[in-house]
Each structure stands twice: as structure tokens, then as C-alpha cells.
């Protein structure tokens, strides 16, 4: 596996991304279609909260669901910028309405356990654009804010902020917290290409 700088990765075209029409926002980013990092690419993350690093290898996606393999070989699935949506029931068409990303776009939906004993309200909003400095260079991002709270008993409330890079096709930074004082921050520190 060789290490590649962000500019080299993008110019080599490994992500297969396409240009789309311009949108009005601070950085002038065009609307971001749902395009993800090329399968086989390894993304290395630093858990700023704990000072540790971990890596995931991107696998082919299925519709709006992304798939990856952890360093331990565990296969996982997720929905980008949708806190804990994997393995729960929710209206995926409402999530799909988030794409293409544009400043001001917002979706709201309920996610629930299969037996419906727990339900959460999710609100996802494209808040702004922002240039982020990462170890491998500057990246233009859409900043997406997620709020989630449990309905009924439980009184759990959480919020997260994601910096999504249309060029990379993945989130490059995440900050999350909840009302039980859990706080996490993750930053992408390296991109490895097979």
C-alpha cells in the first residue's frame, strides 16, 4: 500500500467524481452528489479525544449505505452524517433528500428499532462550507449538523458536526456530543491507496 497526498489522489482520478453546477455558498462549492471514496482506499483516522489512530478500508456501497472494513477485519455499514442510522429502520428516501448537498438543505425523519420500542428523531442540516486544514492538505467541505433525540422515555439528546469533502467523497472530520457528557472528535490524517 502506498501513501498518497490529497492533491495526487484527486489528480489521479481515483475517486471517479464528476463536476456539477455551482451553488451559492461561502466557498462557491457546487452541489455535492452522493459519491464516495473509491473501494479499496484506506482512510486513517485520529481520535483526537483519546489520542489513538485507526483505519478503515472502503468497500463498495449499496445505494445510500456505505460499507467499510475495520483494522480488525470487521465489516461495517453506515449512512454518512446520519448518527446511528445503520441497523435501524428509517425512511431512507428522506435521508436521500439530503443529496446533493447544498447549504441550507435540511431533512428530518424518525429512526426506530425493529420492534419499535425506541424511536429517535433525526434532523440533518447542511449548515455552511468551510476549508479544513488536514495533515495531507487543505480540503473544501460542506459542514453538516445532525441533531438526534429519543422520543418518549430516556431523554437522550445528541448532536454531531461533520465536514464532508466532495472531492474525497467522505467525511474528513467529526465532532459529536450528547447530554450524558460523551464527546468525540475524529480527524482524517492519511489516505492510503492500494
Please characterize this protein's 3D structure.
- The protein has 194 residues and is mostly beta strands.
- It has a single domain (2-193), classed as YmcC-like fold (Beta Barrel).
- 6% of the residues lie in helices and 50% in strands.
- The protein is built from two helices and twelve strands; from the N terminus they run E-H-E-E-E-E-E-H-E-E-E-E-E-E.
- Strands 1, 2, 3, 4, 5, 6, 7, 8, 9, 10, 11 and 12 form a twelve-stranded antiparallel β-sheet that branches.
- A hairpin with a 2-residue loop joins strand 3 and strand 4.
- The longest helix is centred in the N-terminal third of the chain and has 7 residues, at 6-12.
- It starts with a strand and ends with a strand.
- The model is unreliable at 2-24 (pLDDT under 50).
N-to-C terminal Cα separation, in Å?
Answer: 5 Å
Structural class: mainly beta
**Percentage of β-strand residues:** over 45%
Helical region count? Answer: 2
- Main beta-sheet annotation: 12 strands, antiparallel
The total number of structural domains is 1
CATH class categorisation:
Mainly Beta
What percent of residues adopt helix (DSSP H or I)?
under 10%
What is the CATH topology classification name? Answer: YmcC-like fold
Gyration radius (Cα, Å) is 17 Å
The general outline is globular
* Average of the residue pLDDT scores: 86
- Count the E strands: 12
What's the quaternary structure here? single chain
The H/E string reads EHEEEEEHEEEEEE
Please mark out the parts with pLDDT under 50 across 5 or more consecutive residues, or reply none: 2-24
Tell me which CATH architecture applies here: Beta Barrel
Amino acid at each position: 500500500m502506498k501513501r498518497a497526498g490529497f492533491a495526487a489522489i484527486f489528480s489521479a482520478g481515483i475517486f471517479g467524481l464528476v463536476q456539477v453546477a455551482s451553488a451559492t455558498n461561502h466557498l462557491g462549492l457546487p452541489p455535492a452528489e452522493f459519491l464516495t471514496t473509491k473501494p479499496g482506499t484506506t482512510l486513517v483516522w485520529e481520535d483526537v479525544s483519546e489520542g489513538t489512530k485507526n483505519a478503515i478500508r472502503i468497500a463498495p456501497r449499496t445505494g445510500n449505505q456505505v460499507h467499510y472494513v475495520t483494522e480488525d477485519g470487521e465489516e461495517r455499514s453506515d449512512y454518512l452524517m446520519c448518527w446511528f442510522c445503520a441497523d435501524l429502520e428509517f425512511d431512507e428516501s428522506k435521508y436521500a433528500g439530503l443529496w446533493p448537498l447544498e447549504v441550507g438543505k435540511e431533512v428530518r425523519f424518525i429512526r426506530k428499532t425493529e420492534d419499535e420500542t425506541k424511536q429517535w428523531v433525526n434532523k440533518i442540516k447542511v449548515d455552511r462550507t468551510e476549508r479544513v486544514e488536514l495533515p495531507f492538505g487543505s480540503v473544501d467541505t460542506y459542514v453538516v449538523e445532525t441533531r438526534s433525540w429519543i422520543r418518549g422515555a430516556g431523554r437522550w439528546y445528541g448532536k454531531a458536526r461533520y465536514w464532508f469533502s466532495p472531492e474525497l467523497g467522505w467525511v474528513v472530520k467529526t465532532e459529536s456530543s450528547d447530554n450524558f457528557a460523551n464527546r468525540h472528535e475524529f480527524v482524517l490524517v492519511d489516505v492510503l491507496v492500494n
